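Quick one: structure tokens for this chain, please?
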Amino acid sequence: MSILYDFDEEKYMRMMREEYREEGLKEGREEGLREGFEEGREEERKQLAYRMFDRNRTLEEISDLTGQSMEYVYQLRKEYTQMAHENIRYKTEKKKE
């Protein structure tokens, strides 16, 4: 007994494209979530270090308490200092107006 049927190649290709598209979207969402989570963790580490800078903790203390390298903490200190200077400059300019 043989079964005869018409194979619609275009329909098959459309279905496969849609399947691969959905798979790609799913992978993209998962990757985006992972990246977003990591960015959030990075921002939290920065904010923690900034609070410690506000409390005059040393770079060594911050490195010990956060588990981050001295190089990383030093870079954050540079960013923090620059932000503080910009904030002071902004407040000074506002007072002059």
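Residues 31 and 37 are 10 Å apart (CA to CA).
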